[in-house]
Amino acid sequence: MPWISRTDLSLCTIPIIKSGEKNVTIEYSGANRPLWIIKDSTKQLTEYKATKCSIGGLTPDTQIFENHKIELEKNDVFFLFSDGFADQFGGENSKKLMTKNFKDLLISINHKTLKDQKNHLAEFFETWKGSNEQIDDILVIGVKV
């Protein structure tokens, strides 16, 4: 049997925000990859679940991926990411970081600028990974409204 490529994906459309606008509506759709939003007003993380199906491979061309329209307010932050960060082995017992711990980490650094969050995540990852080999690609995109 030939090798069949499958891809997990988060896709988001972001409108051009005009000066003075307080709210913006984004559209998100995912193939096995969710969208996380940390609302500035509550500092809580909300997850928008992806369709539980990859793109490509044995997925039929007729597969429908759920579309979410999400209203965001100024200073809300949303995250698109691969599974590589949470799946990395590390720490004292060389275990996976896990999704819950990744969520908690993002919430704990939400008060920082996006640049400082990026630096914190990079430093945290290297410390967590330690001498373990990096097992997957890593992509974390944070966008602040």
Question: Could you explain the architecture of this structure?
Answer:
The protein contains 3 helices and 11 strands, in the order ββββββββαββααβ. Strand 9 (89-90) and strand 10 form a beta hairpin. The chain has helices at residues 84-87, 99-108, 114-129, and strands at 6-7, 9-13, 23-31, 35-38, 45-48, 55-56, 67-73, 77-81, 89-90, 95-96, 140-144. Helix content is 21%, strand content 32%. The strands form 4 sheets. Strands 5-4-8-11 form a 4-stranded antiparallel sheet, with no helix packed on it. Strands 2-3-7 form a 3-stranded antiparallel sheet, with no helix packed on it. It has a single domain (6-144), classed as Phosphatase 2c, domain 1, CATH 3.60.40.10. It has 145 residues and is an alpha+beta fold.
What's this entry about, in short?
By secondary structure, the protein is α+β, with helices and mostly antiparallel strands.
